[in-house]
Amino acid sequence: MPRPIKRRRVCHYPRTVTFQPAEARGACSPILLTIDEYETIRLIDGQGLSQEQCSVSMQIARTTVQKIYENARRKLADMLVSGRPLHIEGGEFRLCDGQADGCGCSTCFKQAYHQQYKKPEGDSIMRIAIPYENGQIFQHFGHTAQFKLYDVEGGTIIASRVVDTNGSGHGALAGVLTALNVDALICGGIGGGAQTALAAANIRLYGGVTGSADAAAEALAAGRLTFDPDARCEHHEHHHAQGHGCGEHCGSGHSCSGHGGQDA
Asked: Which of 42, 134, 197, 230 could disulfide-link 171, Cβ–Cβ 3.0 to 4.6 Å?
């Protein structure tokens, strides 16, 4: 029986998960770079870490890092040489929550978040996060500047506070929520990449909700929140609906650069 694959620790979910050539050349399928492959590129090529240091950060063997890194470099070469689109998704990974005994980034803001916003003692506490602006649910998850956190016990909110997002956006916000020890997110619109990141962090999603943040949190605590399980970010989906599906073709002579590369 084969040994299960160890999930690789990823400090930062990619901010941009879709890349499209400005000059498309013929029909071609996208190259899929996994999140753990992306992390080796970020750490080794982006931050200048050695493969040994990368293995410590991702909490896997150096030989495993070497294989993942080689696969990632081949995929990036194929993207550049062949002019194919690139999607970053999937893989065997877990998001870093900033715990001091696990995080390999000495300057990671998630370490401070994890310590500052610890949950109260007790397994029955549920923490809810809501993108927040002036008392309302901010409707574009990836652009929120603040979350309001609610601690719930026995169907009642026992504490709440507002937290800055530290300039993160889109899929990267899943790392913020993980460090904040969040169990559930209530939001309005949210893109597919961010949904994937939240699922990887085991954060339950309640999308398509509008109105008062406090009222929504109280409704979820009481088990009567009305939400849309198929909620999407209307702004992001609008770009694709008006033109084309990025990565579906490469030969029409147009550029996808106007999408900003965001898929969350």
From this structure: 197
Digitized pLDDT (tens) for each residue of the chain, 264 residues in all: 556 667 888 887 787 888 988 876 666 789 999 999 999 999 999 989 999 999 998 989 999 999 999 999 999 999 999 899 999 988 888 877 666 455 555 556 566 666 666 776 666 899 999 999 999 999 988 889 999 999 999 999 999 999 988 665 555 687 788 888 899 999 998 887 788 888 878 899 999 999 999 999 999 999 999 998 877 665 444 443 333 333 333 443 333 333 333 333
Rounded to a whole number of angstroms, the distance between the first and last alpha carbons of the chain is: 37
Which burial class, exposed, middle or buried, applies to 117 when counting CB atoms under 10 A from its CB (0-12, 13-18, 19+)?
A: middle
Any bridge partners for residue 140, and if so which? Answer: 189
Measured in whole angstroms, the distance separating CA 251 from the mean position of its chain's CA atoms is 30
How do 204-206 and 18-19 pair as beta strands? unpaired
Residue that has been written with the tokens 């309302």 in this structure: 136
The rounded distance, in Å, linking the Cα atoms of 184 and 198 is 9
> Cβ neighbours of residue 128 under 8 Å, at least 6 residues apart?
149, 150, 152, 182, 183, 184, 185, 186, 217, 220, 221
- Pick from 154, 156, 153, 164: which is nearest to 120 by CA? 153
Q: Are 129 and 182 in contact (CB under 8 A)?
A: yes
Residues 191/236, Cβ–Cβ less than 8 Å: yes
